[in-house]
Amino acid sequence: KNYQVVVEENRRLYNEVQELKGNIRVYCRIRPFLKGQNKKETSIEYTGENGELVVANPLKQGKDTHRFFKFNKVFGPSSTQEEVFLDTQPLIRSLLDGYNVCIFAYGQTGSGKTYTMSGPSINSEEHWGVNYRALNDLFHLTQSSQNTVMYEVGVQMVEIYNEQLIFLNLHTLGIWNTALPNGLAVPDASMHCVRSTDDVLELMNIGLMNRAVGATALNEKSSRSHSVLSVHVRGVDVKTDSELRGSLHLVDLAGSERIDRSEVTGDRLKEAQHINKSLSALGDVIFALAHKNPHVPYRNSKLTQVLQNSLGGQAKTLMFVQINPDEDSYAETISTLKFAERVSGVELGAARNYK
Ligand code: ADP
């Protein structure tokens, strides 16, 4: 296959899933109801393909008994990691056409963000989340086009906690020796050159261990930090020497639950305020992009600053909106869906009453 054919094929694949709003798409994923808990399940009716869902209010009071939402797609509780990835793959492949891509998982703690992005375990390929599958797929593609395009792939891992960036840097720790690719000039020493899926698995394993033993035991705080995995790709056409660059950011966001100010103080309050601020800033940026506003407020949080070059313009954005079906989570579920509705630029207005 020559270079152009690969590009055209990727473009076609991408266009097939390009619906609704230009470069911003929103997928809703409802995680299964975890058995063994003494809880009730919220009634949610949905149609996967056309992305509609109707959520019943368990209190059944007032006019507002049901709420209707529409996104690009809804994945129900029995959806597999593979199915979710199949609908994400074309977007990821557009990275090799030189696009920048951001994929977020948004939702309250326990709604399945990490499950969707990473999966429950690194060791079981069947359960791999979007990030391992994405890198695996990229390596397959880059290897199959080796004779026409030479690719370099670099990976960075960053945590954003209390508006501070914490880069995983295995070079300074003497753990990662693979030389930085020459051409992949992202001016940062935290870039790790990877050549295979095994490299990625190793890197992430070390990253997770490193997090867990870190001075601040960030692992325990993981639901209160944003975790960003960035993949940078540079491709050079061997015949023409023309160059293409793309980047993919896979973001497991901090839990979106609202903290009752009367119940927390000190560090927890500070964390909650930082999370609140950065999630609203992210919402404002995507909203501005969806509405093609001339001013996009990137400067309001570290998260949006870090992702500035990959949000907007020619970049493509996907948000996974994660839903916890426990009835106790109803209020958070509605607030999550409203956030998603706002960023998708497809606000359907007032709640409708479904009989
Ligand atoms: P979050 O990252 O939003 O805090 P997790 O990804 O840790 O949430 O998910 C919470 C729990 O629910 C975990 O035990 C996880 O394995 C389980 N879970 C989440 N999504 C799914 C799913 N689609 N299928 C099976 N179990 C899931």
UniProtKB/TrEMBL annotation:
Family, per entry: Belongs to the TRAFAC class myosin-kinesin ATPase superfamily. Kinesin family. KIN-14 subfamily.
Residues of the full protein shown: 423 to 777 of 1029
Positions of ATP binding: G107, Q108, T109, G110, S111, G112, K113, T114
Segments passing through the bilayer: none
Lineage, opening ranks: Eukaryota, Viridiplantae, Streptophyta, Embryophyta, Tracheophyta
Protein name, entry field: Kinesin-like protein
Positions of the Kinesin motor domain: 23-346
